């Protein structure tokens, strides 16, 4: 099982972990080819190329705390510029048996406070957009939108 956990009640977290409530559940991202190693390399390269300050967030940069391609686990800490808030982001890449396709479980959560002012959504949407622009068209990842996450969007206006 994935080492990911769900979310608390605050609207500052998304998780693909089993048992996560509907307000916080993020459908796993899917890849259609390449297997675990390629999918993990895709995610790690997108994260390493992530531009701090994009969409006015993560100006304090980020640090990859753990990268294990063999198990498919990547743990990154993103930092806000002004207050130095840290957000934890985890990815668990799993391949479907007998094929090159699979899924990525994601957890993105603020450590402090109740609201995140949309930061986690902006961050994950940027990462999924970058994955979907990779050659080969093998990535499918849901966008965090008002339709998919109305409570999160309403509370973080």
How would you concisely characterize the structure shown here?
The protein is an alpha+beta fold. Helix content is 22%, strand content 26%. It is built from three helices and seven strands; from the N terminus they run ββαββββαβα.
Descriptive report:
The protein is an alpha+beta fold and 157 residues long. The protein is built from 3 helices and 7 strands, in the order ββαββββαβα. Strands 1, 2, 3, 4, 5, 6 and 7 form a 7-stranded antiparallel sheet that branches. The longest helix has 14 residues, at 35-48.
Categorize the overall geometry. Answer: globular
| Mean pLDDT value | 93
Low-confidence stretches: none
N- to C-terminal distance: 35 Å
Main β sheet profile: 7 strands, antiparallel
Descriptive terms for the model:
single chain, seven-stranded antiparallel beta sheet, alpha+beta, 7 strands, globular, 157 residues
List the helices and strands and how they pair.
Elements: E1 13-15, E2 29-31, H1 35-48, E3 62-68, E4 73-79, E5 86-95, E6 102-110, H2 119-132, E7 139-140, H3 150-155
Antiparallel strand pairs: 1-6, 2-6, 2-7, 3-4, 4-5, 5-6
């Amino acid at each position: 099982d994935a080492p990911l956990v769900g979310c608390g009640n605050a609207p500052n977290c998304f998780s693909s972990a089993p048992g996560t409530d509907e307000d916080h559940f993020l459908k796993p991202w899917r890849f259609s080819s390449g297997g675990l190693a390629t999918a993990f390399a895709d995610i790690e390269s997108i994260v390493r190329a992530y531009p701090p300050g994009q969409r006015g967030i993560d100006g304090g940069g980020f640090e990859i705390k753990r990268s294990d391609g063999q198990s498919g686990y990547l743990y990154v800490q993103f930092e806000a510029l002004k207050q130095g808030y840290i957000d934890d982001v985890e990815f668990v890449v799993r391949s479907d048996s007998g094929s090159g396709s699979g899924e990525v479980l994601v957890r993105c959560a603020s450590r402090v406070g109740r609201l995140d002012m949309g930061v986690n959504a902006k961050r994950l949407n940027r990462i999924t957009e970058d994955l979907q622009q990779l050659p080969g068209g093998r990535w499918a990842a849901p966008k965090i939108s008002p339709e998919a996450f109305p409570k999160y969007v309403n509370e973080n206006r």
